C-alpha cells in the first residue's frame, strides 16, 4: 500500500433496514485525491444475499440514510463541493431526491416520526452577526465565562448552539420549527414509538460548565413539556426508546462525585423509565466497554457493540440485565447495527476489509457486500509480551514481504483509553509495505480488556505504560526476522506523549522517533486543550507538583535521537503550543529535530484530514524513516 492508496479504503456508515427487513442501505465514503475531498453515495442491498449492492445515489457525499417507518421514503444527509450538509428525502419506489433543509450551518441526525410524516434533526444556530458571509476576523470579540467554549474538530461553539428541529418534508416549502431553546447544546434526537415525545441529550443543569455530566431530556414535538429523565450524575449519549416506549436506553459513564471523573472508565448501557425513576446499568462496569456505536433496542433486548481484546463483539443485552448473548465475535470489529422485521444487519470490519455489511437472519450469518475484499493487505500476526510484573501485553505485528531482517516501528495508539484491533489500519499497511515491520498493541491504559486494565496507569502514565510497550517490543523481536538495531518509535496524541517519553527514558532502544499531535507538557495542556480542565487531574493525578515529573517535556534534555514532530495548526485537543515547546527545547540543545505543521487541520488529521494532507503526512513519515532507519 502506497500513501496515495488511501483512495482505495472505504468507510461504511450505519446501515438502515427497510421495515419489511428485505433491504439494507448504507453510506460508503472514500477519499478522492483529485477533488481533495471525501466522496460517497448510498448503496442498496437485499438482506438475503440474493444480489450484490446497487448504488442508489451519487453524492457528492451522501450519508446518514434512514428508512421511514412505512418504507416509502429515505431521508439522508448530502454534503460536499463546499456546500453545508443538508437533509434530503428520496422516494424508495423511484424518483429524484429533494432538499428539505437549508440551515445556515448545515443539518444532520435525521429521524423519522412513527407516522412517516415528519423529520426531527439537529442543527447549529449561529448568533446574529457570526458565521455568515463576512470576514471572520472582523466579527465582534467573544466573551468567555467558562471552561467549555471550544471543541476540537469544531472550534468555538458557544456562539452556535446545537438545537433540535422538526420539519414536514412534504410541504411545498419545508419550514423547520426549532424545538429546543437556550444557551445549551442539544443532540442525538430520538422519537418515541407513539410520536408523542422527542428524546435528546443536553447539559442544562446549573453545574454544566464545571462537570462533564449530561442528561437525557424529553419534550413534545412542539417543544412543550420539557423535562429531565436522568439525574445529572452521568455522562450520557445515544438515547433510544424501547419498542414499547416505556423506557429509554442510553450509553453512560459514571462521573464521580465531582461530575468530571470519566477518564479510563468503561461506558455502559443504561435504561431509565420515561415516566421517571432511577437509571439502571445493564452491563457489567468492569467487563464491558461499549464504544457508543449505533445500536438497536429490539423486543428481545438491546443490540450493542462491545470491545473485546482488539475485537468488537455484537451483543444482545437483556432488559433485566444479566449475561449478554454474543451474536458476532471473533477477530473482527462490529461498528454499527440495525434491526427490522427479525433481520439484523451490521457493519463489520476485519483484517482484510475496512468494512462489509453482514446480515443475521433465519439463524444464519450472510455477508452482503465485498467493498474491500480485493485490497490484498498484509496480515496481522498476533503476539503477547510479558511485562516485568508478569502481566500479559497483547498486540500484533504487520510484517513486510520478504525474509528480512526488517527495520522495526513501535507504533503507539492515542487515548490512552482506546484500542488497536482487527481491522485494516492504513498506517500499518503503508509502513509495512515500505519495508518496516510494525509492532502495535494494547498496553495497560487501553480499553477492551476490563476497566482495571485501563485504569492501571492513573497517576504514573509514562513509567507504567513504557514497561508494557517495551515488553511488547521485546516479544516482537523474539519472533525473528526483525532488526533490533534499526528500531523507530512513533505515535499520536497519547501515543505522541509516549513516543517522547520513550525517546527520553529509553533512547538506547531507538534510532529515531516521530511524535504527532502530542501532549508534552501537562501544565500548559490543562489551560490550552478543550479537555484539559478535567482530563489532566483525572489521568495524571491531583498532585499538581508531580505533573512536571510526568510530563515528557521535562525529560526532553535526555533525548539525543533524531526527532520529527508533526502537528496541526487548528488542533484544539493537543494545541500546537505542545509541539512548539518540544521543538524549541530540542533545537536549543542541538538535537536533529524537524517540525511539520499542517494548516487548517485539527486533531483528526491522520483519519479525516484533507486527502492531500494525509498523503503528504505519509510521505514525510516515510522520508524520515528512510533517512534514519
TrEMBL record:
It holds the Pfam family Peptidase_S9. Keywords: Hydrolase, Protease, Serine protease. GO terms for biological process: proteolysis. It comes from the Bacteria. Gene3D superfamilies: alpha/beta hydrolase, TolB, C-terminal domain. The keyword Membrane does not apply. Residues 422-629 form the Peptidase S9 prolyl oligopeptidase catalytic domain. One of its GO terms (molecular function) is serine-type endopeptidase activity. The keyword Hydrolase applies. This is Peptidase S9. It comes from [Actinomadura] parvosata subsp. kistnae.
Amino acid at each position: 500500500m502506497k500513501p496515495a492508496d488511501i483512495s482505495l479504503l472505504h468507510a461504511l456508515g450505519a446501515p438502515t433496514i427497510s421495515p419489511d427487513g428485505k433491504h439494507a442501505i448504507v453510506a460508503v465514503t472514500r477519499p478522492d485525491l483529485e477533488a481533495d475531498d471525501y466522496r460517497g453515495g448510498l448503496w442498496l442491498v437485499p438482506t438475503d444475499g440474493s444480489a450484490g449492492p446497487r448504488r442508489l445515489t451519487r453524492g457528492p457525499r451522501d450519508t446518514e440514510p434512514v428508512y421511514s417507518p412505512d418504507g416509502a421514503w429515505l431521508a439522508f444527509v448530502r454534503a460536499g463541493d463546499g456546500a453545508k450538509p443538508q437533509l434530503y428525502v428520496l422516494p424508495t419506489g423511484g424518483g429524484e431526491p429533494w432538499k428539505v433543509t437549508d440551515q445556515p450551518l448545515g443539518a444532520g441526525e435525521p429521524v423519522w416520526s412513527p407516522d412517516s410524516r415528519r423529520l426531527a434533526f439537529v442543527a447549529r444556530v449561529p448568533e446574529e452577526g457570526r458565521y455568515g458571509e463576512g470576514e471572520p476576523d472582523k466579527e465582534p470579540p467573544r466573551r468567555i465565562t467558562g471552561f467549555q467554549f471550544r471543541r476540537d474538530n469544531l472550534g468555538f461553539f458557544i456562539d452556535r448552539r446545537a438545537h433540535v428541529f422538526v420539519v414536514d418534508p412534504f410541504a411545498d416549502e419545508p419550514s423547520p420549527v426549532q424545538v429546543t431553546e437556550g444557551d445549551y447544546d442539544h443532540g442525538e434526537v430520538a422519537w418515541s414509538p407513539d410520536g408523542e415525545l422527542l428524546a435528546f441529550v443536553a447539559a442544562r443543569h446549573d453545574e454544566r460548565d464545571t462537570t462533564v455530566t449530561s442528561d437525557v431530556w424529553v419534550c413534545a414535538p412542539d417543544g412543550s413539556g420539557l423535562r429531565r429523565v436522568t439525574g445529572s450524575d452521568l455522562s450520557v449519549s445515544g438515547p433510544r426508546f424501547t419498542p414499547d416506549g416505556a423506557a429509554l436506553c442510553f450509553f453512560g459513564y459514571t462521573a464521580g462525585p465531582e461530575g468530571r471523573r470519566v477518564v479510563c472508565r468503561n461506558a455502559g448501557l443504561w435504561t431509565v423509565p420515561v415516566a421517571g425513576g432511577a437509571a439502571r446499568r445493564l452491563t457489567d462496569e468492569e467487563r464491558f466497554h461499549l464504544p457508543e456505536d449505533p445500536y438497536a433496542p429490539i423486543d428481545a433486548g438491546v443490540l450493542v457493540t462491545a470491545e473485546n481484546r482488539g475485537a468488537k463483539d455484537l451483543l444482545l443485552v437483556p432488559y433485566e440485565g444479566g449475561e449478554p448473548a454474543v451474536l458476532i465475535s471473533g477477530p473482527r470489529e462490529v461498528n454499527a447495527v440495525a434491526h427490522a422485521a427479525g433481520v439484523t444487519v451490521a457493519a463489520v470490519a476485519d483484517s482484510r476489509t475496512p468494512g462489509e455489511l453482514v446480515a443475521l437472519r433465519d439463524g444464519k450469518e450472510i455477508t452482503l457486500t465485498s467493498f474491500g475484499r480485493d485490497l490484498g493487505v498484509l496480515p496481522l500476526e498476533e503476539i503477547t509480551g510479558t511485562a516485568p510484573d508478569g502481566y500479559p501485553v497483547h498486540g500484533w505485528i504487520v510484517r513486510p514481504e520478504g525474509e528480512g531482517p526488517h527495520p522495526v516501528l513501535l507504533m503507539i495508539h492515542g487515548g490512552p483509553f482506546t484500542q488497536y484491533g482487527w481491522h485494516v489500519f492504513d498506517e500499518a499497511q503503508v509502513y509495512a509495505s515500505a519495508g518496516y515491520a510494525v509492532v502495535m498493541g494494547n498496553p495497560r491504559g487501553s480499553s477492551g480488556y476490563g476497566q482495571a486494565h485501563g485504569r492501571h496507569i492513573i497517576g504514573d502514565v509514562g513509567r507504567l505504560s513504557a514497561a508494557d510497550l517495551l515488553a511488547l517490543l521485546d516479544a516482537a523481536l523474539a519472533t525473528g526476522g526483525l532488526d533490533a538495531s534499526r528500531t523507530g518509535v512513533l505515535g499520536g496524541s497519547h501515543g505522541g506523549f509516549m513516543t517522547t517519553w520513550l525517546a527520553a527514558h529509553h533512547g538506547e532502544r531507538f534510532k529515531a522517533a516521530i511524535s504527532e499531535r502530542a501532549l508534552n507538557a501537562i501544565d500548559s495542556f490543562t489551560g490550552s486543550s478543550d479537555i484539559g480542565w478535567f482530563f489532566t487531574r483525572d489521568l495524571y493525578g491531583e498532585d499538581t507538583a508531580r505533573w512536571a515529573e510526568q510530563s515528557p517535556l521535562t525529560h526532553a534534555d535526555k533525548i539525543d535521537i533524531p526527532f520529527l514532530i508533526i502537528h496541526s495548526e487548528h488542533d484544539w485537543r493537543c494545541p500546537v503550543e505542545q509541539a512548539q515547546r518540544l521543538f524549541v527545547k530540542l533545537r536549543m540543545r542541538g538535537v536533529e529535530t524537524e517540525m511539520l505543521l499542517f494548516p487548517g487541520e485539527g486533531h483528526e488529521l491522520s483519519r479525516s484530514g484533507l486527502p492531500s494532507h494525509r498523503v503528504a503526512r505519509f510521505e514525510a513519515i516515510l522520508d524520515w524513516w528512510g533517512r534514519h532507519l
